[in-house]
Design brief:
Six copies of one chain form a homohexamer. By secondary structure, the first copy, chain A, is an all-alpha fold. The first copy, chain A, is built from seven helices and no strands. In chain A, helix 2 crosses helix 3 and helix 4 packs antiparallel against helix 5. The longest helix of chain A is centred in the C-terminal third of the chain and has 17 residues.
Chain lengths: 133, 133, 133, 133, 133, 133
């Protein structure tokens, strides 16, 4: 197997731990849009970055969510809330990233992120106990 | 004790786990600049956010570093690399946040962050094994 | 009354000057999402920041609108255009913030903000004279 | 003719090379919103900047698309993908700006931009060969 | 007088109310760098935006400071803290913009802005009473 | 040769067209900091992105400069002004990117970028004719 396929294969493997059917469909759509870009996403983004073992998937999910909220990338946030759940973060931990970002990126970013997070939770059938965790 | 002092006290407690003498001096400087602002930072930022128990200090450090790199807040990054070390993150884990952010915030942000992280490591007498961890 | 309730109470008081029924419903929704976060917004954002007397509500509205347009926080902008009207800013003054930001944050941010501002004006039954004020 | 009309006239001329009916309607809408702002956009943005001869329209389109993707100004991106096509950029070149920005602004910005670019292409009846160019 | 000179002249007039010798030297430097850009700054930025009468100079200073802190444009902030003082804002009001932005743009932006504001105050021989105003 | 070395080799080749001794030293420094990150920069950033043939080096330089100015990545801007010169952009064309960005990213970003660009020009012994080109 060439090394390109190897990075791509590793990327698909880690994505298998992060995605479910909804997300897999989103990724397939990118293959139709531009297979070069789709390859970069899978091979570099997932195959090279997410597979690195200095941090585990849950830690990488925290970093990713924080970056997305901070830069206001709310469309990508939808994908990664699901990925975070699959990585093993608890819903209350995902909520906590949004709250923590209020201090570091300002309340508007968190105020915009919150309903999106809750929307994904609802689609996934997740109910938060009380409403703090 | 009033609740204000209580939040401030909790903030100072968690800061005690995150700061050393260098950082404590930085904070004292803010008390001279504007004690209201200094109070908000300690009471809200640390007393209300960092003490929440849904995530531990190491996880909060990952989120904070990611937000700072993503928004290009490199001055604040200096403070928080030290805080992250004190929170218990290993140097190689801090380096990993910078690398992960290259995919999510772009290479320029990470390229600017890296020398800053290494500079703080050097000041703290930290040597990375090989240079990957 | 504990100090927590006191900050929250002050926050609700100033919000009473900034909100009407539409906005109040938006806030109630946050209490269902996460009451901790809702408390931080009301107690810190409004109870501690907006009540400070060094600047009045109209001045704070100018600062808030500018920050939101500059960072592209257009969802939060909807809330704050209404809040600005209630704070006492005239419609032509709100429009002026959008125009001023074109020079400081670039035309794309202002071009995106303008239709949103006009939409809120229309919902509030506001007609601008001529179309410059 | 006064110089104001001259800058405006030059702006409308270059816009004639960048717009079609869809975009022209968008601009007309701004004249109803605020004619001062509309004048600034046309006279300064197009009349002073886009007409400068140190770079041609295709080069300016590359710069504009890159800035919009980087700052996440996706509404304005719609207008400028069309303008870029009219300026003479090939669809594959526009796609290339999105891919290039993944390295410089991070994958989330490009991942959000891509479907928007494809949407405009579809509305314009553009089919990309294979799907890389 | 041509209209170009007229906008430029109006720009220089309002700058006369906003600048002192330090700032004037900064502007002269831009004329040597690129006179076209210098003309755009003076004629559009100051001649068209700052002279508009829907908001006064102090209000425009609030908007400008907020936008600069929010986007992290700390070099430009130095110029505009001085301009704000000349526009008539009191030091305590300028400090207040920094504090207000902590909630809307996050604490890191304000934490970086504060020492810069204090530095300009010191250069201008300004002493804040107590340290809250 | 493995494919990893192949992407790295292609990256070094294109860098050879973009760098001179100053820049090459900057890159070597990254190999000492973290060879994994250095590999990603060279293999992905340059080996995969800059070598793509849908756009040439001068066009990619325009896109890169625009993204860096827009996001305020001024440290990386230094590297890329030099790279742009080596890619074949004329000094007046690089200046033009800064001017164009004033409309799209706001004047503060361009005002900060300009002296940096001029500084690199001076270090490279470049004199602009008149001062508009």
């Amino acid at each position: 197997m060439t090394q390109k396929d190897e990075r791509y294969k590793k990327g698909m493997e880690v994505l298998g731990k992060l995605t479910d059917e909804t997300n897999l469909n989103l990724l397939k759509r990118f293959n139709d849009i531009n297979s070069d870009f789709e390859d970069m996403m899978i091979s570099f983004g997932y195959g090279e970055i997410w597979t690195r073992d200095q941090l585990d998937l849950k830690q990488r999910a925290l970093i990713t969510l924080s970056s997305l909220i901070t830069q206001g990338a709310f469309d990508a946030l939808r994908f990664h809330v699901r990925a975070a759940l699959h990585a093993g973060l608890e819903p209350k931990e995902i909520v906590e990233v949004v709250i923590h970002c209020a201090a570091y990126a300002g309340f508007p970013k968190s105020v915009t992120a919150f309903p999106i997070v809750m929307e994904i939770f609802e689609e996934e059938g997740i109910k938060l106990e009380g409403n703090n965790e």
